[in-house]
Design a protein that fits this description.
Helix content: 25-40%
Distance between the termini: 66 Å
Strand content: 15-25%
Largest sheet: 6 strands, antiparallel, barrel
Structural class: alpha+beta
Shape: globular
Number of helices: 19
Strand order of the largest sheet: 8-9-15-14-11-16
Number of strands: 29
Length: 704
Amino acid sequence: MIDKLVIVESPAKANTIKKFLGGKSKVVASMGHIRDLPKSKLGVNPEKDFEIDYINIRGKASLINSLKKDAKDSKQVYLATDPDREGEAIAWHLAYILGIDPNSICRVTFNEITKETVQKSMKEPRCIDMNLTDAQQARRVLDRIVGYKISPVLWKKVKRGLSAGRVQSVAVKLIVDREEEIEKFIPEEYWNINLVASDKKTKTKFDCKFVGKDGKKVELHSESEVNSILNDLKNAKYIVTDIKRGEKKRNPAPPFTTSTMQQEASRKLNFAIKKTMSVAQGLYEGVKLPEKGETGLITYMRTDSTRISNEAREAAKKYIEAEYGAEYYENRFYKTKADAQDAHEAIRPTYIELTPEKVKDNLTADQYKLYRLIYNRFIASQMSASIYDTLTVNIDGNSYNFRANGQTLKFKGFMALYVETEDIPSNEEYTKIPELVVGEEVKKEDITSKQSFTEPPARYTEASLVKTLEEKGIGRPSTYAPTITTILTRRYIEKVQKQLVPTELGRIVNKLLIENFSDVINVEFTAQMEEEFDKIAVGEENWKKVMREFYAPFEKTVAKVEEELEHVKLEYEVSDVQCEKCGRMMVIKYGKYGKFLACPGYPECKNAKPIVETVDVPCPVCGGVVQVRKTKKKRNYYICENNKGENEGCSYISWNKPKIGEVFNPKENEEEIVKETKKVTKKTSKTTKKTTTKKKITTKSKKK
C-alpha cells in the first residue's frame, strides 16, 4: 500500500521530488494534460450554457489506467502539478479522472523544487482552486470558439490548414502594422556638426557636438544651412562658457519575470523564446548534481512578479557582502506592475551557494548560459547603484553653441557583476574631457559635418514583440512562447536575421481578419479579456457570464461575415508569367511550402509551377541561372539550375552569393549543403516550392 501518491506533470520533476519524500511515497508524472477539448469538433455548447465536452487525450489510455491503479493503491493522493492556472486545471482534470473530490485536501504546489520547499508544501495541502481552474477554462473556451468559428472563413477564402486566434492574430497584426509603417516611412534629412577641440596645456583632444545658436537649440536639415554655419566659424575663437559637474546613479534591473528573462536571453544569448522556456523548465524541474542528486536550480519560470522571499533576500545579502563587500549591498524592493498576478516570486536561483561556476560541469551549455544569466541578474538586483562622475562643458564660437559630455565610472556597484543589455551606454554619447576652466580658449583641431537620414521604426524581434505584448496586456507569461511559435509555424511571419517579417500569407490573413472581425482581432479586446480572466482567477467574475457576454455579439458577426463573403472572390497577386496551357496570366498562391504559380482558370485549367528566386549574376562555372534555395533549417544557399545533384550537370553550389568575375573554388562546407539538402535536391518540386520570389520570377518549360 502506498502512503502518498504525488502526481506531477513531468518525469524530470518527479525524479527530483522523489528523493525529498520519505516512507512509502510514490511520485509519478501525468505528462501534461490528460483531458482536453476534442480536435474534430468545437467541443463547447453555447446553447447549453457553454457545456464542455472534455475527452481523454488520445494515446494516454495506458497512462490513465496506471494512474488509476496507483491512486487505488494509495492512502492519499496529492496533485502537485505546476503552480499556475494551467497546472490548477490539470489537477482538476486529474481529480475527475481519479474520482477525487476537488473540494478535498488534495492539491500541493511547489514554487521551487528544493527539499525545504517540497517538505513544507506537503504539510500545507489545500483543495483545488476552482477560480484558477475556471480562469483557465475561460481562456481555453474563448480561444476555441474564436479559432473554430473564424478559421473556416480563412479556409474558404485563402487555403485550408490556416488558423485564427484571439492572441496569435493580434500578434500578427502588430508585426504587419509595423511593416506597413516601415514601407510608408519617408526619411527626413538631418545634419550634425562635430568639433574636435583640444586644451592648450595637455593637447588632449575631445569631441563637441553642435547644439544651437545664442543658447537656442537649432536643428539642421540641409547642406546649405551647414555650409553657412561652417563659413561663419572659419575664423572663430572657441571659448569655454560653462562647466557643470555632477553625479549620476544607475540602479540595477529587477530580478527576472518571464517576459524580461525571454527578452534578455534573446538579446544576450541569442535564444529563441521557445528555447528559453524549455531550458528554464529543465532548470526548475531539476538537474543531477554530484552531492545533491536531482536538484531544482531556479524558482518557477512562469511569473510576472518581481517579488522575492525574505530568505532569498537574506541569502543574497550574505553572498554579496562576502564576495564584494558591505558597500556593494543594498536591500531593494521592486514594485510589481498593477495587473501582475503576483502568485509566484520572481525567477531566481533556489540555492545561492550553487553559483554558476560550481554547477557548470553538470549542466548543458545552454543550461549554464541561462542559469548564469538568472543567477547574476538576481544577485545584481540586490546590489548598490553604480555611480558616475559626469562633466558637461559648453563651448561657444561666434555665438554658435557646442557641447561636450563626459562621464567616468566612480563606483561599479551592481555593474561589477551584471549589466542589462539596454543599460549599456553608447560610446558615441561621451568623450574624455581634459581639465578646463570657464573663459578658457580651446584650439580647433578639426570641424566636420555629417549628413544623416531619420530611420523607420525597427522591425520586431522575438524580444521586442514579447515586450510589446506585455506592455499592451496581451497574453500572460505562459502564452508568449506558444503564440510566437504558432505564427511562425503557420508561416504568417518569418525570421530574417532575428527580425520578424510578415509573409504575404500573413498580410492576406491579417487583412481579411481586420476587415471582418475588427471587434475581436484587436489589441483592446484582447487586453480586456486578459483582465476578465484575472477577475475570474480571484473570484470577482463568473466565467460563464463572461462567455455569454462575448458570444452573443460574436455569433452575429460570424454569421454576417460568412454571408457577406459568400460571393466575394479573393483577389490573388497576378504574375508576369503566362500559362502555356490556356494563355491566362498566372497568379501567386500559397501551398504547403510557400508561394507557387497557379492558373486562375482552376478547375478547368490545373496548371501550376514553382516560383524560383534567382540572382542577377550568372553561374561562375557554366554561365547558367543561379537559384536561391533554402535548407531544412531555412538557411539560404545558391545553386546552378543545371546542377542535377549526384554529381550530374553543373557542380556549382555555395553558401555565398556568386560575384561577377568570381572563380569558383569548391570548399569543404559545400559538402555540408549537399548532405543537408540531398533529399530536397532530388525532389525538385518540393525544393522549388519552398522558395519565395524577391527579384524576378523564372520558370522552366519542363512539366512538374
